[in-house]
Amino acid sequence: MEYKQIMDNLKKKIYHPVYFLWGDEPYYIDKISDFIAKNVLTDAEKGFNQAVYYGKDTEVQTISEASRRFPMMANQQVIIVKEAQLLKNIEKLKHYVENPLNSTILVINYKYKKLDKRTSFAKALNKHSVVFESKKIYENKIPAWIEEFLSESKYSITPQAAVMLAEYLGAELSKVANELKKLTIALPENTRITPEHIEKNIGISKDYNIFELQNALGERNVLKANQIINYFGTNPGNNPIQRTISSLYMFFAKLFMYHFLPDKSERSVAASLGLHPFIAKSYIRAAKKYHPRRLYNIIGILRDYDMRSKGYGNVSTPPADLQKEMVYKILH
């Protein structure tokens, strides 16, 4: 079942006896689990009818026995198992899953670990429960996710601001959502969020960030690139070298890939390279300024500085100076 369908059903008070929530992206697992914990029972009912267990500290039998109890002065009871990936012999829950108590809502949070779909336990889950796989979202999809998240809260955002946030925050949805909530608290509804709003409320400089560094390097603007990398050096906490290298590696790798695309139209480039449509044009312009051989060499430079930033072949050069050296070599 998909996330939206599960949440729509829960809001309509359509409940199922067992929810098995698994995958590498904890954000959606937590959203579903937290909604059930907060909304199924009243505060008065929760005292006797809601319990939380942790996989590391409990046993299958304990969970099974708790799930088979009838609720007290309520229509349902809620049992939530957190960190279920640490629960020993979890497959023994198969017997309960095959014959659950309708008045119990058992929520199993199984994070960061694959569920072997070939097992009889997995087959029982698929047949008798709501199974939701929470997959990681690719980084290139984060700007669109930001736009959708804000739209649901009656806000909008400029494409540049969405890409800027995505580049700075990465693909950890919980972190992105927390920063977006800060913005929505600080700004009135129906605001169209701009880089200026982000700089004022989150602290990401609208002029000196990884997105602007990519643009400067793409345009081979030596002065602007040096200004940004010098700013990074004075603010290492907000601009760690590993994040800079990772972002630039993805940037130049996509420029390299551009040269081998059969269709170099803007729409095709955005789709093939996984780019937000807003920045496809800038990637096309940048790729035309770098020969594939040069891009291949730049990727090698980034790999070298990645190793040096981790201490290999580098004894005393501080990260700020490493970043300056790296940008100099990219541009020259």
Strands, count? 7
Unreliable stretches covering 5 or more consecutive residues: none
Structural class of the secondary structure composition?
A: alpha/beta
Report helical residue fraction: 55-70%
Largest sheet data = 5 strands, parallel
CATH homologous superfamily descriptor of the largest domain:
P-loop containing nucleotide triphosphate hydrolases
Shape: elongated
Q: Largest beta sheet: what is the strand line-up?
A: 2-3-4-1-5
Defining traits:
single chain; 332 residues; alpha/beta; Rossmann fold; Helicase, Ruva Protein, domain 3; Zinc Finger, Delta Prime, domain 3; 3 domains; 5-stranded parallel beta sheet; two-stranded parallel ribbon; 17 helices; 10% strand; elongated
Structural notes for this entry:
With 332 residues, the chain is of the alpha/beta class. It has three domains: 3-134, 3-Layer(aba) Sandwich (Rossmann fold); 139-201, Helicase, Ruva Protein, domain 3, CATH 1.10.8.60; 210-331, Zinc Finger, Delta Prime, domain 3, CATH 1.20.272. It is built from 17 helices and seven strands. It has helices spanning 3-11, 26-39, 43-49, 60-67, 94-98, 120-128, 142-152, 159-169, 173-186, 195-201, 210-218, 222-234, 241-258, 266-273, 277-288, 292-309, 319-331; strands spanning 18-23, 50-54, 77-82, 104-111, 130-134, 156-157, 192-193. It has a five-stranded parallel beta sheet with strand order 2-3-4-1-5, with helices on both faces. It has a two-stranded parallel sheet with strand order 6-7. The model has no long low-confidence stretch (mean pLDDT 92).
